[in-house]
Every structure is written in C-alpha cells, then in structure tokens.
Amino acid sequence: MTASPLPSLTETDPVPLLRGTLQAADRALIFAGMLLLLEVAKFLTVGNTEAVDLTGAGNPVARALWYPLYFGLILALGARISALLRVLVPAWPIFALLGVTAASQIWSVAPEVTSRRVVAVTFTALFGIYLALREDRLDTLRTAGAAMLAAALFNLGTVMVRPGVGIDHVDHIGAWKGIMVEKNALGGEMARAGLVLAWLAHADRRWRTLWMAGFAVAVLLVLGSTSRTALLALALPMAAFALYLLGRRSPVAALGVFYLAVTAAGAAALYVWLAPEQAVGLIGKDLTFTGRTGIWDACMTKILEVPWTGYGFGAFWVEPYGPSYDVRVQVEWIVPSAHNSWIETGLALGFPGMVLLGVLVVLALARSGLAVLGGATPWIFLGLMQLTLFSMSESLIFWHPNTFSCTLFAFYATLALMPAARRQKKPGA
Predict the structure, then answer these.
(1) How far apart are CA 229 and CA 215, in angstroms?
(2) Which H helix or E strand runs over 302?
(3) What percent of the chain has pLDDT over 70?
(4) In this structure, are 228 and 263 located in the same domain?
(5) Do 196 and 263 fall within a single domain?
(6) Are residues 418 and 8 in contact, defined by beta-carbon separation less than 8 angstroms?
(7) pLDDT at res. 420
(8) DSSP annotation of 50
(9) Backbone angles phi, psi at 316, to 5 degrees
(10) DSSP H/E element including 228
C-alpha cells in the first residue's frame, strides 16, 4: 500500500459532514481567516506602509476586520463542541500555554495591550484547532491552499502593477515585499505557502496543475524577496521530500537515502564548526546574525530580571521608556521585537512560557516523526521543521496572529487526535 498523502482523520466522523450552504459557509470561514492571517484584508483597508507600532494600539480598522471571523469561529466550534472537548486533554500544551497567557494580564506592564493580544492569540489558536477538527482533511487543505494561492497572486500583482508599493526602495533596494511591510515577511509567508501548495500538488491529483502553478508563483516571490532564510526554509523541506520519495522505492534505496542524509548532516555540522562565518554567510548573515545576537543578549538579561512571570503577553515593547528601554539603549536602535520566537515568549511569559512552547514543539515533532515511521507522508513533520527554523531568527510563533502560529496549533491538534482516530477504527475493522 502507498502512504496516505494526508494524516487522515476521515476514518471517523466526529460530527456529521456539513452539506450545502453550511459547507460553503465553512469554507468561506477558512478562506477569509487565511486571507486575514496573510494580511491581504489589512492591505486592502489600511495598506502596508504603517510605521512600527510601539504603543500596541494597532489600527482600529484593521482590528475590526477580525471580529466577524471571531463570531463565525465561535459558531463553527459550537457545531463541533464534542470534538473540541475531546481534544482538550491530548492537546493540553496548547491550552496550558493559553492559560498562562491569559493569566499574564495580572502582572502585565501594559495590561490593556495584553488583554487585546490575549484575545487575538486565543482565537488564532482556536482557528488552528478548528482546522484540525474539520472532517474532510483534504477539503480543509484545499481551501487554505486556495487562500494562499490568492495571496501569492495578490503579492505578485502588487509587485508588477504597483512597484512603488510592492518593491522596497529604501532599506533593501529592489527586493520584493508585495503587500507585506518588508521583504522578510513576504519571503516567510511565501515559503510557508510554497510548502502547503507543494503538499496539495502531491495530495490532490484533481487540481495538481493548479497547485503546481501556485507553487511556482510562491517560489518566484521567495526569490524576489531576496530572503535567503526563506529560500533555505523552502528548499530544505523540498529536498527532504524528494529523498523520502526516493527512499520508498526499495529497502536498498531507503538504506542509500539514510546513508546520504547522515553523511550530508555530518558534513554540514563539520562545515559550521570549522567555518562558521562562511556557513552563516550562505544565508546572508554574519556571526552576529545581522545584529540579532546583541538583541538576544540584552533580552535574556531582561528575562532574568522576572524569570517566572515575564512582562505580560505582547507588553514588553509597548512603552518606549518601559522595560524595553534598556534593550534599545544597548543595541542603539529602536528594535521592535526580539527577533526570536523563544526569547519573545520568555519576555512575555518568563521561563514557564518558554518551557510550555518547547514542550508543544518537541511533542509535535516527535509525534509527526512517529507518524512518518507509521506510514504517513512527512508533510506535517517538514512543516514543523520549517516553523522551527523561522522561529530561531524571527518573532513569529505565538506572538501575533499569523499563519505560523495558526499552523503550529493546527498541526499539534491534528497529531493529538490521530491516535484516537486509530483506536476508534479498530472495533469496526
């Protein structure tokens, strides 16, 4: 038998399949939610030229765009309440992390900002869980992929039709940024979209040509962004999947792939050890990761001042003369974030938050790896590896609503439910 292209839960139906108008509404919710996460809706209303928001107030129009999604999500989860209750225990790291996040309003240095951002990240997590709870796994992936394809085309159109907006003419002259605020944001989102579209090209034979074309657009945008990190984050999973397909041909091929992978990993580790400066130069960085190490050192010092609580979710960078002042003085520029998801979580929630996020990611990687050994294709594992790579140099995971946070929660909830699906299948087998 060939491996299933998706870690399917369609063996069991937690709730009856939605039909007709309800199913259309279900898809519309996913499509709209993804467009919000990909900042298409924001661009159409307030543009991409907003200055860095140090007050945490954000744009009230942009915030208001999310309210219909929240309402629709409440209704959709209400229709799946029994399935939602079943995921509470197996997905406990998600809810524990959300609990600590909500509690941080008590000690936050900017409680009003924390309250707003707690709501935003909670609904981002619930949206990810909702994607995992949907009965038709392929339909969910198709709808999310369609939104990513639409966003990719919108970004490409902005570059071509409005180069004054879609191309950077200030900081990174000539680099594409599309509808995003800067080039790395475009590269990161299109690397994520590229992986999902490649997944669909493998899983969905009916629309394979469309998804392959979308993948090509995503690759073009990654190249245009000139983000080497994004290019690496897309190229490595694609190379790994190619090796996976090669290894499935025969036991001899599998042994050869294993030998090749171990040799390549060893050679890469040796290269980094012997020539670290040249190694990081391959992704356009220096040994300070373009100044990030200085930011990390300064932020870790601030974490150690309140190691068990942090400064409240989303609150550290709000006040210009608050706790972030020392960091900005030390690095000598108005840094807007820690440029590292783990350190950002530490600033928000202290070591407890860092540990819970670590448990969530490690368990997800372990479960997805075991799923691959059990016969599933490696797309979730590759997606998690991509997330982990981005988390090292950017504040993306569990900080504000985006596709990275959403897919992390969706992947974990999917993996948490997979053993239950297998157990439910056995009695009827």
Answers:
(1) 18
(2) helix 292-305
(3) 85
(4) no
(5) no
(6) no
(7) 46
(8) P
(9) -60, -40
(10) helix 228-247
Residue 2 placed within a domain: no
Q: How many domains does the chain have?
A: 2
332-342 burial string, b = 16+ CB within 10 Å, else e? eeebebbbbbb
Report the C-alpha gap between 213 and 400 in whole angstroms: 30
Task: Report residues of the chain scoring pLDDT below 70.
Answer: 1-20, 48-58, 254, 271-272, 274-290, 419-429
In a domain? residue 8: no
Q: How far apart are CA 222 and CA 43, in angstroms?
A: 19
- On whether both 78 and 215 belong to a single domain, the answer is yes
Q: Residue 13 domain-assigned?
A: no
Rg of the chain in Å (alpha carbons): 21
Cβ burial 55-73 (10 Å sphere, 16+ → b, else e): ebebeeebeebbeebeebb
Q: What is the rounded distance in angstroms from the CA atom of residue 83 to the CA atom of residue 188?
A: 32
Instruction: Name the residue among 363, 376, 378 with its Cα closest to residue 416.
Output: 363
Pair of tokens at residue 35: 């467009």
Letter for the amino acid at 148? M
Residues 260 and 336 in one domain: no
Residues 124 and 189 in one domain: yes
- Looking at residue 247, its pLDDT comes to 82
In a shared domain, residues 130 and 260: no
Residue 398 is encoded by which pair of tokens? 């569990």
The helix (run of H) or strand (run of E) holding residue 342 is helix 341-373
Is 238 in the same domain as 137?
yes
Asked if residue 56 is part of any domain, the answer here is yes
SS3 167: strand
Integer CA distances (angstroms), 342 to 280, 308, 315, 358, in order: 20, 15, 15, 8
Q: Which residue has the tokens 């006040």?
A: 319
- Domain stops at, among 258, 278, 298: 278
Write out the two tokens for 67: 């309210």
Cα(215)–Cα(200) distance, rounded to whole angstroms?
9
Q: What is the extent of the structural domain holding 397?
A: 20-247+288-428
Question: Both tokens of residue 401?
Answer: 């609503």
CB 408 within 8 A of CB 364: yes
Closest CA to 344 of 364, 317, 319, 308: 317
Tally of CA atoms within 13 A in the half-sphere of 58 that contains its CB:
18
What phi and psi, each to the nearest 5 degrees, are found at residue 49? -105, 15
Query: Are 32 and 82 part of one and the same domain?
Result: yes
Are 155 and 225 in contact by the 8 Å Cβ rule? The answer is no
> Within a 10 A sphere around the Cβ of 367, how many other Cβ atoms?
22
Q: What pTM value is reported for the model?
A: 0.88
